[in-house]
Amino acid sequence: MGERTSNYDRHIADARARFLQWDPAEIAERFGLKREGEWLLVSFLHRPYRISTVTGEIFLKKEGTQADFNAYLSIFDALCREKPGVLSGQWRTINDLGIHHPGVGEGPFYAPYETQFSGRTEKLAAVCRDMGGQPFPVGDVGYILEVFPFFPVVFQFWEGDEEFPPQLRILWDRNTLSFVRYETAWYIATALLDRLQEQL
């Protein structure tokens, strides 16, 4: 467990070091972000975060607690880019983005969340709305959710019945890999599903 934690810490430290090589004024202009003194402000999954341009640390703006691993890696990957991606408006599953790693699949990854979301569609829909979600017409629960103000995903959930188990799906813009790396999409998916789970 200590080694795993150390690996997480190492990844965060590397991401912070890469961020500190960038000009925060350019990042703010490129992505339309506000600045408050040394802090760069960014919304991630409808929560305000602040990034220290001195240390590279990320905190939840209201609570003051430090961001977790998924938020760190997602935020820095999205912001440390020469230019923002351009949305296509066409939705794909994560495994249809043009990269696929053997042994990594949506089914096993989503299964624990499908079980926990089952029987709670009304509450799940309310949580999506609280996160600023806009209705999406497919699914017992279907919402377009902002990962960042410049990058949305679609969350869908279908309740199970006697014949079919519950099912969830996250849809990504066809141009997702011009916004974040493939690995980062999995960090975002984890952060999103954990957030929904926490709010139920």
Characterization of the model:
- The chain contains 6 helices and 9 strands.
- The strands form 2 sheets. It has a 5-stranded antiparallel β-sheet. A 4-stranded antiparallel β-sheet has the order 1-2-3-4, covered by helices on one side.
- Helix 3 (69-79) crosses helix 6.
- The chain is globular, with a radius of gyration of 17 Å.
- It has 2 domains: 2-79, no CATH class; 91-199.
- 30% of the residues are buried.
- It is an alpha+beta fold and 200 residues long.
- It has helices spanning 2-19, 24-31, 69-79, 106-117, 121-130, 182-199; strands spanning 35-36, 39-44, 47-52, 58-60, 91-93, 134-135, 141-148, 151-158, 167-173.
- Strand 6 (134-135) and strand 7 form a beta hairpin.
- It starts with a helix and ends with a helix.
- 38% of the residues lie in helices and 22% in strands.
Distance between the termini: 28 Å
- What is the 3D form? globular
Low-pLDDT runs of 5+ residues are none
- List the total number of helices: 6
Per DSSP, what share of the residues sits in E-state strands of 2 or more residues? 15-25%
Please sum up the structure shown.
The protein has 200 residues and is of the alpha+beta class. The chain contains six helices and nine strands, in the order ααββββαβααββββα.
Question: Notable features of this structure?
Answer:
200 residues; globular; 22% strand; alpha+beta; five-stranded antiparallel beta sheet; 2 domains; 6 helices
